[in-house]
């Protein structure tokens, strides 16, 4: 299938604003990608068009029953002036796993990668040039059949939009304080926690608000069954660096398999660190923070790459990790991953896709 281009004429394009101090996800570029699906034709009419609103029937399934999934990746402006994507193939595979779970049609991964490449190149003037900043890429799909019946939609729309984002760390690579909730859960076994389904995020808002009101930036989620085993932090995966082991919760079915998580595991392993994926109880974490056996804790995700955790609150007490400071391992991982993403360091794993 050929991607049709219906571009805004050069003279009518908006001047690119100064790409500084951007609030995440508020500013969008000139164009977007769209295609539609129906049972008869499959995916059809892939095209890049001017960015703008979509028309939905008020009965569209997505508005009522949240049949929607998304992805998140970034295009980086390298120190060599080349544009790079980081492991985009993994995002596409995860998107299709999400489609399966949500009874939505799979997409052609090659076509969607082609669409991402074309769209980013067309709107490349919107990629911030400083290290740390990037162009956030948001592919998403939703069921839009107008019916109030609870069933998979017969029709879908798939889109990609782009949003320039500032460096996550404007005031230095500083640790955050997190709030362990044993009141709310993010995802349960057999649920949809391991895919990027819209409803998961709606369900997480309340806990985030409660944590914020108490002065914490992120929620640490525990497992839904025992409220005992650590799962994730906010919308990031979580790592613990115990005396001689870098460990992260094993993918249990209710944990989102992060691409940054996988990259950290592979990097740390290649450095000769003992890495593991296993069950980690909140008691073990607290005991480690108190005894000093827990040297570092950090979240991982596309947005922040690495987010050091300086303290955690659990059942009315606060526990400090590494004196509330960013540790050397978090720093090393951050430098290495961003070094690869911005073309400053070699890419021995073949993680980057160079667009220009
Ligand atoms: C997207 C996401 C992550 C991180 O995934 P990356 O591929 O590393 O960006 C972790 N947890 C949740 C809940 C997420 O939605």
TrEMBL record:
GO molecular function: branched-chain-amino-acid transaminase activity
Keywords associated with the record: Amino-acid biosynthesis, Aminotransferase, Branched-chain amino acid biosynthesis, Pyridoxal phosphate, Transferase
Pathway: Amino-acid biosynthesis; L-isoleucine biosynthesis; L-isoleucine from 2-oxobutanoate: step 4/4; Amino-acid biosynthesis; L-leucine biosynthesis; L-leucine from 3-methyl-2-oxobutanoate: step 4/4; Amino-acid biosynthesis; L-valine biosynthesis; L-valine from pyruvate: step 4/4
Reaction(s) this enzyme catalyzes, per UniProt: L-valine + 2-oxoglutarate = 3-methyl-2-oxobutanoate + L-glutamate; L-isoleucine + 2-oxoglutarate = (S)-3-methyl-2-oxopentanoate + L-glutamate; L-leucine + 2-oxoglutarate = 4-methyl-2-oxopentanoate + L-glutamate
EC number: 2.6.1.42
Pfam families: Aminotran_4
GO BP annotations, alphabetical order: isoleucine biosynthetic process; L-leucine biosynthetic process; L-valine biosynthetic process
Function, in words: Acts on leucine, isoleucine and valine.
NCBIfam families membership: ilvE_II, PRK13357.1
Family assignment from sequence similarity: Belongs to the class-IV pyridoxal-phosphate-dependent aminotransferase family.
Name of the protein described by the UniProt record: Branched-chain-amino-acid aminotransferase
Organism whose genome encodes this protein: Thermosulfurimonas marina
């Amino acid at each position: 299938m050929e991607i049709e281009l219906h571009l805004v004429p050069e003279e009518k394009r908006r001047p690119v604003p100064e790409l500084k101090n951007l609030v995440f996800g508020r500013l969008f570029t000139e164009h977007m990608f769209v295609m539609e699906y129906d049972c008869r034709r499959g995916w059809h009419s892939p095209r890049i068009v001017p960015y703008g609103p979509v028309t939905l029937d008020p009965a569209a399934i997505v508005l009522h029953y949240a049949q929607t999934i998304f992805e998140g990746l970034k295009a980086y402006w390298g120190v060599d002036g080349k544009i790079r994507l980081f492991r985009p193939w993994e995002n596409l595979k995860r998107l299709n796993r999400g489609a399966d779970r949500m009874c939505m049609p799979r997409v052609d991964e090659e076509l969607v990668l082609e669409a991402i490449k074309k769209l980013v190149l067309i709107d490349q003037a919107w990629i911030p040039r400083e290290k740390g900043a990037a162009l956030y890429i948001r592919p998403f799909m939703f069921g839009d059949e107008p019916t109030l019946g609870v069933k998979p939609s017969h029709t879908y729309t798939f889109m990609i939009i782009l949003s320039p984002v500032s460096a996550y760390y404007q005031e230095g690579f500083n640790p955050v304080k997190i709030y362990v909730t044993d009141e709310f859960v993010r995802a349960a076994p057999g649920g949809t926690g391991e895919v990027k389904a819209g409803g998961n995020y709606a369900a997480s808002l309340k806990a985030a608000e409660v944590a914020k009101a108490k002065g914490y930036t992120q929620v640490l989620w525990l497992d839904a069954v025992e409220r005992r085993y650590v799962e994730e932090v906010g919308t990031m995966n979580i790592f613990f660096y115990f005396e001689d082991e870098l460990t992260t919760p094993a993918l249990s079915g209710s944990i989102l398999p992060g691409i940054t998580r996988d990259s950290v595991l592979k990097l740390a392993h290649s450095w000769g660190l003992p890495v593991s994926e296993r069950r980690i109880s909140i008691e073990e974490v607290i005991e480690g923070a108190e005894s000093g056996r827990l040297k570092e804790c950090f979240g991982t995700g596309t947005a922040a790459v690495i987010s050091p955790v300086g303290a955690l609150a659990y059942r009315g007490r606060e526990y400090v990790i590494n004196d509330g400071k960013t540790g050397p391992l978090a720093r090393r991982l951050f430098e290495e991953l961003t070094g690869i993403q911005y073309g400053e360091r070699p890419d021995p794993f073949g993680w980057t896709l160079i667009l220009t």
